[in-house]
Amino acid sequence: MIKAGLLGLGTVGTGVVRIVEGHQEDLQRKTGSPISIEKILVQDRSKSRAVSIDKDKLTENAWDVIDNPDIQVVIEVMGGIEPAKTYILSALEKGKHIVTANKDLMALHGAEILAKAAANGCDVFYEASVAGGIPIIRTLNEGFSSDRITKIMGIVNGTTNYILTKMSQEGAAYGDVLKEAQALGYAESDPTSDVEGLDAARKMTILATLGFHAEVSLQDVKVKGISAISKEDIQYGKRLGYTVKLLGIAERQDDHISVSVQPTMVKNSHPLASVNGVFNAVYVYGEAVGETMFYGPGAGELPTATSIVADLVAVVRNLKLGVNGRELFTPYKEKKLKSDEQISSKNFILLHVEDKAGVLAQITQIFAKHDVSLESVLQHPNVSNPAAEIIIITHDANQASMNKVLSEFESMDVIHQIKSVYRVEG
Ligand SMILES: NC(=O)C1=CN([C@@H]2O[C@H](COP(=O)(O)OP(=O)(O)OC[C@H]3O[C@@H](n4cnc5c(N)ncnc54)[C@H](OP(=O)(O)O)[C@@H]3O)[C@@H](O)[C@H]2O)C=CC1
Ligand SMILES: N[C@@H](CC=O)C(=O)O
């Protein structure tokens, strides 16, 4: 019998209990052992629970789990940095294996946790920390171990994808859809980290580190969330054949990497454009394999718990073989970040401008001056005031040139507002 301890019995913890109990027979066949959840840490034992559980298993004292000599695996699904970090490091010191869904912790302190695990011969698996039910970490570590990954592009936050889908398809108001996502258990306890892109940035830190084998830190990720996206942006995107998505984008060229999270106009023909609702997808480009994409639910009780219990199975199999602590996938390459001159993309720019002769010529001259070539220009009269809206799609342009163009636009009288600027994919 393998005994596991659970730190947390919220959305994900509840799913873990359901799967371990509901799939017990299959789990035994797959691992050769019965698996039981022995002890569960919660904040409040008196709270009613969504799953029926023997009250004696619940504790408000973390050390009942960590110091329990019968428990071999600790599953951390409480979230946050502290006290989760202290509990995980202490459990590793006691030789216990860790399964966690905590992307905040793995993005910020993954290196320290993996080093402690290596020193103690322990496993640390964190499949559920990125893209909920999609086994993307195992795919990068194992499925692509023979290839050289050059691009990882993902819709890795279910809450924002749910919000953008409802805004785009139903014209729903941002605040109402956010409340729905919270009620469905998708959003973080502080949903600001979802909508401002931080949750996605943490996940991209993890994916870029594993995909490029260099220790990418959260500070390396340029982050912009979805709170400034307007209905106008979504509508103009639609007219031109694009869907607005919050994309995490990690790229590598000649060993220089860039990682960002930003609202992006995705061409409707690109497979990421049709990933809707709480679904996530991760597009991976490998030099040898070419284009691949992995799709599935990115959040929610049972999808996330599926990944957690799969990690638990991996720990138990390793225990049987006596090989725990051998699959820690620590980075081995020096990290070199791309400069703005090396980061290149197509761009969507929406300008509010004065509607008079020669304005378009002035604008296109600025692009030409900085060597930015244009793919299309659309002018639309704004009925509410005597101005016009100009939507420009550029060809691939480097970030440094684009910054110069935008900075010149800011000082031009004929441009009333640089309304939006988005990267374009596809
Ligand atoms: N929800 C999702 O879809 C996904 C979540 N994750 C990650 O999984 C983790 C868990 O998320 P989720 O289940 O949604 O979180 P919840 O807020 O639903 O649950 C947290 C659980 O941890 C317990 N807990 C929290 N802090 C403490 C503490 N200091 N001491 C004791 N117990 C504590 C709570 O106890 P009590 O019940 O008594 O309040 C609760 O049972 C997070 O790291 C999250 O980022 C990852 C992928 C998807
Ligand atoms: N809040 C997250 C939950 C999963 O990581 C999301 O919405 O994707």
UniProtKB/TrEMBL annotation:
CDD domains referenced in this protein's UniProt entry, alphabetically: ACT_HSDH-Hom
Keyword terms of this UniProt record: Amino-acid biosynthesis, Methionine biosynthesis, NADP, Oxidoreductase, Threonine biosynthesis
Protein name from the UniProt record: Homoserine dehydrogenase
Enzyme Commission designation: 1.1.1.3
Pathway(s) per entry: Amino-acid biosynthesis; L-methionine biosynthesis via de novo pathway; L-homoserine from L-aspartate: step 3/3; Amino-acid biosynthesis; L-threonine biosynthesis; L-threonine from L-aspartate: step 3/5
GO molecular function, one term: homoserine dehydrogenase activity
Coiled-coil intervals: none
One Pfam family matching this protein: ACT
Catalytic activity of the protein: L-homoserine + NADP(+) = L-aspartate 4-semialdehyde + NADPH + H(+)
